[in-house]
Predict the 3D structure of the following.
Amino acid sequence: MGLYGGAFLLYAAALARLPLNVAHPILTSGAIAMVALFSVLIFREHFYWTTAAGILLVIAGVALITARIA
């Protein structure tokens, strides 16, 4: 419960500093990537190339969504 509360406070702080269309995709995709990485480190699950490719595609997608075209 403490970690959930801390995550909420950090999310609220991020929303206070960043626009919603930037903060939400970054935090959501970051959570997905962290779960994949921690599952390898903590639970010794296999890390397949498709997992790495998926994480990179998510990062690229968020970068494209949040990019500002001048």
Summary: The CA atoms of residues 40 and 47 lie 6 Å apart. The chain has a mean pLDDT of 87.
